[in-house]
Specification:
Strand content: over 45%
Distance between the termini: 117 Å
Structural class: mainly beta
CATH class of one domain: Mainly Beta
CATH topology of one domain: lipopolysaccharide transport protein A fold
Strand order of the largest sheet: 2-3-6-7-5-4
Order of helices and strands: HEEEEEEEEEEEE
CATH architecture of one domain: Sandwich
Largest sheet: 6 strands, antiparallel, barrel
Amino acid sequence: MYAATVILAVVSSFFCFSCKDNGKQYGQAITSRDSVSVMTTRGVDMYISENGIIRYHVIAEEWKVFDKMKPPFYSMEQGVYLEILDSVFQVESSLVADTAYYMMETEVWELRKNVHAENVKKEKFDTNLLFVNNKSNRMYSDSLIRIQQDKQIIVGHGFESNSDLTQYTIRKTEGVFPVKDE
C-alpha cells in the first residue's frame, strides 16, 4: 500500500510539473470558416466547357476556393496558364500570369504580375495587371501595356478589348511606327 501511494505521488507530481505555463503565446483558433479555403487543389489541369463544347484549358499549380469570404473568390497565387480552344480543339489564344483571382459574384478575373497574352493573330500583349469581365466579355487595364504586332510595338497606359483580344483600344499610346515615304 505504501508503494502504491509513493508511485501515485510521483506520477501526480510528474503531471503537475509538465503542465506548467512556459509563457508561450498561441494564436487564436479559427472559429469561423470565412478566412479558410473550402478547397485547395494542387496540380490543376482541367478543361472547361461552354454550352457543351470544350473551350478552355486551365493549368495551375494551386487553386483555392474561398466561398465564405466577402466577396467569395478563387485564388491561383502560384500562377495560371489558360488556353482558349476553337471548335476542333486548336489553341486560338493563350494567357499566362503569376497570380490570378476570380471574383465569383462579379465574374471578373484579376490577373497580376507578368501577364502575357497572345491572340489568334499572334499579337503578344504584356502587362502587370489585367481584368477579364466574363459578364461583358471585355478585358481591360489601367497599367502599362505593351503590344507586339507583326511589324511594330505599341506601348500605352491602359487599354480595353473584346474577350479574344482582336478589337482593342489603347490609351496614352507611344511607340515606333513604320511610315512609307511618298
